[in-house]
Structure formats: structure tokens, C-alpha cells
Design goal:
single chain, alpha+beta, GMP Synthetase, Chain A, domain 3, 3-stranded mixed β-sheet
């Protein structure tokens, strides 16, 4: 019989599921599969810290996407607080996309 998942691991999985409901408005793939989310940390108290980027500093969603991410993650049961840091290093490029995102976008230049 396996051990139940640690509460923080379960909460992290639910946070990632919420992130997968956020989309860059110009690309029909969620931000997690696009590789825009660099790090998700969840502590025992339910505080969530997200390090993410955008496809470009001039992305039209720069003003709205971080707020959408915060709101969706904050709505996950068990989350006590959310901190979203938008970073530009390393800069995003298409190599950060998951295989699923590449397939959906028809990119096959591995």
C-alpha cells in the first residue's frame, strides 16, 4: 500500500491544474504547457510562489495575465496566499514548450 501524497504535493498538483486554465491570448496553448511557468513552490501553510515569464516583454497580456494567474491560483482550495513574479531571465523561447504544446501548434523541429 502506498503512502498518501503529501498535502503540499497534492496542493501543488491542483495549482498546476489551475495554471493550465490560463492561456496566452495569442497562442491556443495554456501557459504551463507553453513553458511560461518556470517554478511553482507551495509551502505547508498553503502559500504559493510562482515564477513565470511571458512570450515577450511587449506581450499584449503583460498587464492582465499575471493577475489572471494570481486569481485562478488563489481560488484553489487550500491556497492561503499567492505571489506571482514575472521574470525575464531566462528569456522564453519555443524550446521551453512541452511536447504536447509543440504538437498542438504543429512545431516539430526537435
Amino acid at each position: 500500500m502506498s503512502e498518501p501524497a503529501a498535502p503540499t504535493a497534492d496542493l501543488r498538483d491542483r495549482v498546476i491544474a489551475a495554471l493550465k486554465t490560463c492561456y496566452d491570448p495569442e497562442i491556443p496553448v495554456d501557459i504551463y504547457e507553453l513553458g511560461l511557468v518556470y517554478d511553482v513552490v507551495v509551502d505547508e501553510a498553503g502559500a504559493v510562489s510562482i515564477r513565470m515569464t511571458l512570450t515577450s516583454p511587449f506581450c499584449p497580456a503583460a498587464g492582465s495575465l499575471p493577475g489572471e494567474v494570481e486569481a485562478k491560483v488563489r481560488s484553489v482550495p487550500g491556497v492561503s496566499s499567492v505571489k506571482v513574479d514575472v521574470v525575464w531571465d531566462p528569456p522564453w523561447d519555443k524550446d521551453m514548450m512541452s511536447e504536447a504544446a509543440r504538437i498542438k501548434l504543429g512545431i516539430d523541429d526537435y
